[in-house]
C-alpha cells in the first residue's frame, strides 16, 4: 500500500523558455493560501507560457489543485495538464469523455481541486494556461497529490526477447491473469506469445498502433488456418508513452483492458483450458533452433511490471533466475529516444517556416514524418529559384500529391499512397537532382517528376500551411486546408532541424503550433456510433456511417422503421410485408413481419420454420418427438412485440388417432408445448394457463365428456383438438413435444400457426393532468450518451413542463414555454443549452401536437409536428455524459411549479414506452386516458388525415393527405395528355439560424432529408412515360419512368410481370439537399441525363391519382391552388376518378425494406432509371411506391456503372403469409402490388 504524499511546490516565476522547478517529494500537506507565497506569473511577452514541475522521479499523481496569485487579480480560469518521463516528449492528460481542458479558478484566493479519473505515472508535469482573468494576467499556484511508484522495467531493442520456461513440459490453466505496461517506439511488435501442440495459442501484439489479442483453446483447425481472428482494442499506442494492459481469463470468458477501455468476449475453441508447451515468450517469437531469428516483428520499446499469474517475469530476469532465458540484448532500464513531435492545431492558420540550408551537391532534400486524421492538408510549400515556380506537397483525398506550379495556369502533378490519414506515422521525403524531383512515401516505390530546368529551393520552406496573405511571402497559398496533425524528425539537406530553436524564436517562424507533443486523439475510441454504425473521424470530429444498419441520425440512434403495424396503418399503409422495430432506438434490431390491416384490427403476423402440417409416429414418453420453432424474429424481438401488443394468439391444429395428450390413469401429460420463457405448458386452447384441458372442454363439446380433450378418448378414428392459444405472456410457442404415437395405428398430425398479434398499447397510452401541482414520477432516465424523447400533447394552457429530470448540475427538460413555443433544455456540464421551435399557430388549441427531442454526443434536435427540424451541434471538445440522479417527472417538476395541464400520450424515451395510464391510476390530480373523439385508437380519419376536436364532434384535416373527403378517403385524380404537366415548387429553403445561447451553429434543416417517401397511383397504356420528377437546388433529381419492355439491359431496366411482386432499392450515399420542385407529366428545360430527357419530352398520357411526397400532396395542392405562385400548370388537365374507387387502391409507403412481398430483392447502385412495362392493351392500375433511405439519384454520376443484384426471398415466408391472409379472408387475390 502506497503512502499518499503532497508534492509541495515552491512558487517561482517560470516563463516559456522552461525554468524548471526541481522540487523534492515531501510527506506534507501545505496550504495553497499561505501568505507571502506570491505565485507564478509569466512575462507578458511570452507567446506560450507554461509552468513545469520536476518530481525528481516517476510518481503516481492522483489529483491536482490550483489557486491564483496571492494578493492580486491574476488567475487561470482554464488550463491543460501535460506529463512526461523525460521533459521533452509530452502527452496531454484527458479526463473522462476525452476532455482535455481543466476548469481553473474564478478568483485569486479560491482553491479548485481536480481528482484525476485515472492516475498519472510520470516525473514531469506541465500546466499550460488557456484562459485567465480578462482584467488581470496569468497567475498560478499549484499543488500535486500522489504516491511513490516503483516499477520493474525491461528494454527490448527490436531484436530481443525474454523466455519464461515452465518446470514441466506444458502448462495447462483454466484461469489466467496477465498484466503489464509498455511504451513502444513503433506501431508493430509482439508483446507476448505461447502455443501448444494441441492447437492452443495466445498472442498479444501491436498491429498498426492497436493492441491485438489472439486466443484459442483446443481447436487445431484455427491453428493451421490463416483465418485467425483477433480482438483489437485501443489505438495510437506507438506514442512513446506508457499504456497498461490487463488480460483476465476464466474458461472461455475473457476481459481485455487497455488503459481505461475494456472489451469482454468469449474465446474460440472446444476446451476451457489454455495449454501452452514449454515456454512463454515476451517481446518476440524466437524460431526454435535458430537463435536471433524471429517469426514476427519484435517489440521495440519498454515493458514494466510484467506479471504472469502472479509471477514477476522482469524481476526473475533481472536476478538471472534459471526459469528465464534472454534472447538478444535485454536491459533493465528504459532508454528514452529523442523523438519530439509538434502539433499543428489549426486547419486554417498553422504553419512552420524553416530556412532552406544550402546543399553541397546542388538541389535540395527534405525529410519529415507526419500523422493525421484529415484527408486534406498542405504538408510543404516552397518557392523555387525560377520564379514564379513553386512546389507543393499535400494530402489530397487521403493520398500524397506533389504539384509543380510552373505558372498560374500550368502545373504538373504526381500522387502516391493510399489512406495516409489513418492516424499512423508516415515518412515523406522530397529531393531534387538534376532535372528530376523525387517524392517518396514510407517504403513505397518513389514517384518522379521530370523538370524542364535545374531547380533549387527558395529561402524558406513552409510546413503545414502558409502565413497570412499580408506577409511578404504571399506566393505560399493553402490549396484547400492547412495541415492539422503532428510532424517530427525534420531534416533539410541532411541537416536535422532543432525545433527548440524555433520555439525560442531563434530559428524560422511559426503560428498555432504546440511543441514537444503530438495532440492526436482517437475520437472513435470509444465508438459512439450505435447499432453497428461505422465510425470515421477527422482531427476535430467523428462521423457515423449508418448504411445497412436500419438506423439513421448523427450516431445511428434512430430507427428508420415504425415500431408496429399499427403505426404503419396510421401513416396510411395497407397490408403487406413490413420491417418493424419494436423497441425503436433500443438495442433490438428491426424484424420483418406481415401486417394484415383489416377494417377493425391491424394484425401483426410472425411466421416460423414449420408452418406445414407434420405427421408424427413412433414416439414415446421416453423418446418423444420434439420440434423447435425458429421464428423470423429473435426471442427478444418477439418478447418486445408481444409486450407492446394488446392481444396475441396462436392457433394449434392438432389431430390424433389412438394418440393421447394426457395419461388416462393419472392425468400426467404425454404431450406438451414450451412457451417463450422455456416453461412446459399443457393446456391446448383458450386464455387460461395452467389448466390441463383443450378447447372442447372450454366449449363443453368434447366427443366423450369423461375427458377434457377429444384425443384422450383414444379412439381408432381421427379426432381433433385444435385450439387457439391467447394468453399472450406465454406466446409464442417455441417447441412442441409429442410422446404417445408408438402403438399400432397410433399417429398425430399437427400444425402450429404463425404468431398473430393486434393493437399497439403504446399508441394511445395517455394521461390527463388537471392540477398544476400534479405529476407522474418514474425511475431516473438512463440517457448518459443519447436520449430520444417523443410524445403527443394537447392543452389549452399557455405553458407547462412536459417532463424534467435533474442531477447535481446536469438536467434535461421539455416544456411548452409559451402558447406557440416548445423548448428543449439540457446541460451536460458545458453550459445550459436551449432549443426552441416556434409555431406560426398556437399550440394550446386543444388539438394533438407531436414533439420529438433528441440529444446525443454529436448534436441535439427538436421537432414539433411537421415544422422544420431545429438542431444544435455539440462542441467537439466538451463533456459528453448526462448525469442524472433524481426521478423523472412527467407533467410537472419536483418543485411542483409550472406543471402541465392537459393530455400527454405515447411517451417514448429511447424506445421504451412509458405506461402513463397505470401510473395515473394511483396519482392524485392525474387521470388515465384522455377525453375527446380524437383520443381513441379507432381510425376516424384515413390516409394520414388528422383528427381535429370540435365542441360537438370532430373533423378530418386532409391537408397533409393526398386524399380528400370528410374522412380523407376520396381519391384526388387528374387526367393528363402528352403536353400536360403540373409542377409544384417547394418554398425557398430556410436560412441559417443562430442560437445565441450556444457556441455551435444552429440551423433549420427540414428541407434536407436522408429519406424520401413517395406514393401515387397511375393508369396508362403509354410507354415510355414520365411519371414523376423531383429536382433540387443542387442539381440532384429523382426520375420515375415507365419504360418500354425488352429494352437493352446495359442500362438499368426491369420488366414487371403481372404475377410477380417486386421491390427495388436504390442505393447511393447522398441525400436530397434543398428540394426545389416536383413535376408530374412532361419535363422540359431540366438539366437531366439524355435518357431521362427523352422520356420527359414524351410526357404522360393517362391518369395520376393520390400523389404523396413526404408530408405534401402536390397534385391536390395544385388543383386547390392554381393561382398560387408555387403551382405551375402546363397544358390541359381534367379532374377524373381514374375509373377506380378509393377503397380498391393500394397506397403503400414502405420504409426501406418494409414491404417486400415477393421472391426478388433488387439493388440498383448509384444512378438508376426505374422502368416497368405494361404489355397489355387494356388499362392496368398499378400502385407505385418509392421509399428511399439515403437512396437517391444524383446528377452527373456515372449511369453506366450501375449494377443489378437479384436475391431470392424465402418462399415459405410468402406462402405462410398468403395462407394466413386467405385464412383471415382479408386480401383480394386479384390485386397486384408493384414496388419500385
UniProtKB/TrEMBL annotation:
It is found in: Membrane. Residues 40-147 form the F5/8 type C domain. InterPro entries: ConA-like_dom_sf, EGF, FA58C, Fibrinogen-like_C, Fibrinogen_a/b/g_C_dom, Galactose-bd-like_sf, Laminin_G, Neurexin-related_CASP. Residues 520-557, 931-969 form the EGF-like domain. Keywords: Disulfide bond, EGF-like domain, Membrane, Repeat, Signal, Transmembrane, Transmembrane helix. Residues 556-608 form the Fibrinogen C-terminal domain. Disulfide bonds join 903-930. It comes from the Eukaryota. It is a single-pass type I membrane protein. Residues 153-334, 341-518, 765-930 form the Laminin G domain. Residues 1-18 form the signal peptide. It holds the Pfam family F5_F8_type_C. GO terms for cellular component: membrane. PROSITE patterns: EGF_3, FA58C_1, FA58C_2, FA58C_3, FIBRINOGEN_C_2, LAM_G_DOMAIN. The keyword Nuclease does not apply. This is Contactin associated protein-like 5a. It comes from Oncorhynchus mykiss.
Amino acid at each position: 500500500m502506497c503512502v499518499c504524499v503532497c508534492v509541495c511546490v515552491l512558487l517561482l516565476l517560470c516563463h516559456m523558455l522552461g525554468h524548471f522547478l526541481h522540487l523534492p517529494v515531501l510527506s506534507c500537506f501545505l496550504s495553497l493560501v499561505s501568505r507571502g507565497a506570491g505565485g507564478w506569473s509569466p512575462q507578458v511577452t511570452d507567446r506560450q507560457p507554461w509552468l513545469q514541475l520536476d518530481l525528481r522521479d516517476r510518481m503516481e499523481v492522483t489529483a491536482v489543485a490550483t489557486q491564483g496569485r496571492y494578493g492580486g487579480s491574476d488567475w487561470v480560469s482554464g488550463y491543460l495538464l501535460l506529463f512526461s518521463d523525460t521533459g521533452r516528449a509530452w502527452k496531454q492528460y484527458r479526463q473522462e469523455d476525452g476532455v482535455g481542458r481543466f476548469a481553473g479558478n474564478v478568483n485569486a484566493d479560491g482553491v479548485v481541486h481536480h481528482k484525476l479519473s485515472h492516475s498519472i505515472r510520470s516525473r514531469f508535469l506541465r500546466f499550460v494556461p488557456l484562459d485567465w482573468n480578462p482584467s488581470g494576467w496569468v497567475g498560478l499556484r499549484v499543488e500535486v497529490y500522489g504516491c511513490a511508484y516503483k516499477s520493474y522495467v525491461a528494454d527490448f531493442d527490436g531484436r530481443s526477447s525474454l523466455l519464461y520456461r515452465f518446470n514441466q513440459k506444458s502448462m495447462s490453466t483454466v484461469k489466467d491473469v496477465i498484466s503489464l505496461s509498455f511504451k513502444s517506439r513503433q506501431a508493430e511488435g509482439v508483446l507476448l506469445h505461447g502455443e501448444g501442440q494441441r492447437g492452443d495459442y495466445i498472442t498479444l501484439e501491436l498491429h498498426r498502433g492497436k493492441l491485438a489479442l489472439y486466443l484459442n483453446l483446443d481447436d487445431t483447425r484455427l491453428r493451421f488456418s490463416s483465418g485467425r481472428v483477433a480482438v483489437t482494442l485501443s489505438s495510437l499506442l506507438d506514442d512513446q508513452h506508457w499504456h497498461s494492459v490487463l488480460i483476465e481469463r476464466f474458461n472461455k470468458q475473457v476481459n481485455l483492458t487497455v488503459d481505461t477501455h475494456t472489451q469482454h468476449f468469449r474465446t474460440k475453441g472446444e476446451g476451457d483450458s489454455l495449454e501452452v508447451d514449454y515456454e512463454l515468450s515476451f517481446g518476440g517469437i524466437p524460431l526454435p533452433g535458430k537463435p536471433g531469428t524471429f517469426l514476427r516483428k519484435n517489440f521495440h520499446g519498454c515493458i514494466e511490471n510484467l506479471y504472469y499469474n502472479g509471477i514477476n517475469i522482469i524481476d526473475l530476469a533481472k536476478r538471472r533466475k534459471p526459469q528465464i532465458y534472454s534472447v538478444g540484448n535485454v536491459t533493465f532500464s528504459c532508454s528514452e529516444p529523442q523523438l519530439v513531435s509538434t502539433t499543428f492545431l489549426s486547419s486554417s492558420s498553422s504553419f512552420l517556416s524553416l530556412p532552406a540550408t544550402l546543399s553541397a551537391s546542388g538541389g535540395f532534400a527534405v525529410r519529415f514524418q507526419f500523422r493525421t486524421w484529415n484527408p486534406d492538408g498542405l504538408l510543404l510549400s516552397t518557392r523555387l529559384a525560377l520564379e514564379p515556380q513553386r512546389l507543393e506537397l499535400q494530402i489530397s483525398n487521403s493520398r500524397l500529391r506533389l504539384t509543380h506550379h510552373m505558372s498560374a495556369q500550368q502545373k504538373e502533378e504526381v500522387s502516391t499512397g493510399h489512406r495516409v490519414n489513418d492516424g499512423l506515422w508516415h515518412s515523406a521525403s522530397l529531393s531534387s537532382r538534376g532535372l528530376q524531383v523525387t517524392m517518396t512515401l514510407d517504403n513505397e516505390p518513389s514517384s518522379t517528376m521530370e523538370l524542364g530546368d535545374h531547380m533549387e529551393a527558395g529561402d524558406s520552406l513552409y510546413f503545414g500551411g502558409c502565413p497570412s496573405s499580408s506577409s511578404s511571402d504571399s506566393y505560399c497559398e493553402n490549396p484547400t486546408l492547412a495541415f492539422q496533425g503532428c510532424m517530427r524528425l525534420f531534416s533539410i539537406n541532411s541537416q536535422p532541424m532543432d525545433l527548440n530553436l524555433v520555439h525560442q524564436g531563434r530559428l524560422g517562424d511559426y503560428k498555432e503550433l504546440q511543441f514537444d507533443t503530438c495532440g492526436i486523439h482517437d475520437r472513435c475510441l470509444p465508438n459512439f456510433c450505435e447499432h453497428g454504425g461505422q465510425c470515421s473521424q477527422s482531427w476535430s470530429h467523428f462521423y457515423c456511417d449508418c448504411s445497412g444498419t436500419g438506423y439513421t441520425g448523427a450516431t445511428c440512434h434512430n430507427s428508420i422503421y415504425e415500431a408496429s403495424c399499427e403505426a404503419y396503418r396510421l401513416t396510411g399503409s395497407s397490408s403487406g410485408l413490413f420491417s418493424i422495430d419494436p423497441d425503436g432506438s433500443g438495442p433490438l434490431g428491426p424484424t420483418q413481419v406481415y401486417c394484415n390491416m383489416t377494417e377493425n384490427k391491424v394484425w401483426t403476423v410472425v411466421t416460423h420454420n414449420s408452418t406445414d402440417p407434420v405427421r408424427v409416429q413412433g414416439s414415446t414418453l421416453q423418446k418423444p418427438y420434439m420440434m423447435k420453432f425458429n421464428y423470423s424474429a429473435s426471442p427478444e424481438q418477439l418478447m418486445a412485440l408481444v409486450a407492446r401488443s394488446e392481444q396475441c394468439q396462436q392457433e394449434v391444429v392438432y389431430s390424433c388417432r389412438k394418440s393421447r395428450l394426457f395419461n388416462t390413469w393419472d392425468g400426467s401429460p404425454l404431450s406438451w408445448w414450451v412457451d417463450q420463457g422455456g416453461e412446459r405448458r399443457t393446456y391446448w386452447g383458450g386464455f387460461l394457463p395452467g389448466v390441463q384441458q383443450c378447447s372442447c372442454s372450454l366449449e363443453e363439446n368434447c366427443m366423450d365428456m369423461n375427458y377434457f380433450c377429444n384425443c384422450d378418448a383414444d379412439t381408432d378414428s381421427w379426432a381433433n383438438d385444435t385450439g387457439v392459444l391467447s394468453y399472450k405472456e406465454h406466446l409464442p410457442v417455441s417447441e412442441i413435444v409429442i410422446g404417445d404415437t408408438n402403438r399400432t395405428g397410433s399417429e398425430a398430425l399437427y400444425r402450429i400457426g404463425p404468431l398473430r398479434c393486434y393493437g399497439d398499447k403504446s399508441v394511445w397510452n395517455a394521461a390527463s393532468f388537471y392540477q398544476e401541482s400534479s405529476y407522474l414520477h418514474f425511475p431516473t432516465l438512463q440517457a448518459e450518451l443519447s436520449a430520444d424523447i417523443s410524445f403527443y400533447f394537447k392543452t389549452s394552457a399557455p405553458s407547462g413542463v412536459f417532463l424534467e429530470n435533474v442531477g447535481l448540475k446536469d438536467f434535461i427538460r421539455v416544456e411548452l414555454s409559451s402558447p406557440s413555443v416548445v423548448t428543449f433544455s439540457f446541460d451536460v456540464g458545458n453550459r445550459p443549452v436551449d432549443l426552441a421551435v416556434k409555431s406560426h399557430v398556437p399550440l394550446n388549441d386543444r388539438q394533438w401536437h407531436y414533439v420529438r427531442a433528441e440529444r446525443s454526443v454529436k448534436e441535439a434536435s427538436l421537432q414539433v409536428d411537421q415544422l422544420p427540424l431545429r438542431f444544435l451541434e455539440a462542441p467537439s471538445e466538451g463533456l459528453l455524459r448526462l448525469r442524472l440522479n433524481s426521478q423523472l417527472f412527467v407533467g410537472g417538476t419536483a418543485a411542483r411549479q409550472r406543471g402541465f395541464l392537459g393530455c400527454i400520450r405515447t411517451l417514448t424515451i429511447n424506445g421504451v414506452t412509458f405506461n402513463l395510464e397505470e401510473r395515473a391510476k394511483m396519482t392524485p390530480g392525474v387521470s388515465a386516458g384522455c377525453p375527446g373523439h380524437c383520443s381513441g385508437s379507432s381510425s376516424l380519419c384515413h390516409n394520414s388525415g388528422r383528427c381535429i376536436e370540435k365542441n360537438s364532434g370532430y373533423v378530418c384535416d386532409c391537408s397533409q393527405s393526398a386524399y380528400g373527403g370528410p374522412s380523407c378517403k376520396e381519391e384526388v385524380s387528374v387526367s393528363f395528355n402528352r403536353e400536360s404537366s403540373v409542377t409544384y415548387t417547394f418554398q425557398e429553403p430556410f436560412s441559417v439560424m443562430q442560437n445565441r445561447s450556444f457556441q455551435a451553429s444552429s440551423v433549420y434543416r427540414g428541407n434536407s432529408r436522408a429519406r424520401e417517401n413517395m406514393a401515387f397511383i397511375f393508369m396508362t397504356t403509354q410507354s415510355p412515360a414520365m411519371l414523376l420528377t423531383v429536382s433540387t437546388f443542387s442539381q440532384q433529381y429523382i426520375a420515375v419512368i415507365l419504360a418500354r419492355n425488352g429494352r437493352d439491359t446495359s442500362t438499368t431496366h426491369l420488366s414487371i410481370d403481372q404475377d410477380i411482386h417486386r421491390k427495388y432499392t436504390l442505393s447511393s450515399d447522398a441525400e436530397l439537399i434543398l428540394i426545389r420542385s416536383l413535376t408530374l407529366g412532361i419535363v422540359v428545360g431540366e438539366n437531366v441525363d439524355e435518357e431521362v430527357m427523352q422520356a420527359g419530352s414524351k410526357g404522360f398520357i393517362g391518369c395520376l391519382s393520390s400523389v404523396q411526397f413526404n408530408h405534401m400532396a402536390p397534385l391536390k395542392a395544385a388543383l386547390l391552388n392554381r393561382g398560387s405562385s408555387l403551382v405551375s400548370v402546363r397544358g390541359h388537365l381534367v379532374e377524373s376518378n381514374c375509373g377506380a374507387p378509393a377503397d380498391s387502391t393500394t397506397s403503400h409507403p414502405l420504409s426501406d425494406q418494409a414491404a417486400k412481398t415477393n421472391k426478388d430483392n433488387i439493388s440498383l447502385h448509384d444512378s438508376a432509371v426505374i422502368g416497368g412495362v405494361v404489355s397489355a392493351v387494356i388499362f392496368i392500375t398499378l400502385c407505385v411506391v418509392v421509399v428511399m433511405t439515403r437512396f437517391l439519384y444524383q446528377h452527373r454520376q456515372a449511369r453506366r456503372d450501375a449494377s443489378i443484384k437479384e436475391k431470392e426471398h424465402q418462399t415459405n415466408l410468402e406462402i405462410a403469409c398468403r395462407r394466413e391472409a386467405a385464412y383471415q379472408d382479408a386480401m383480394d387475390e386479384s390485386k397486384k402490388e408493384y414496388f419500385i
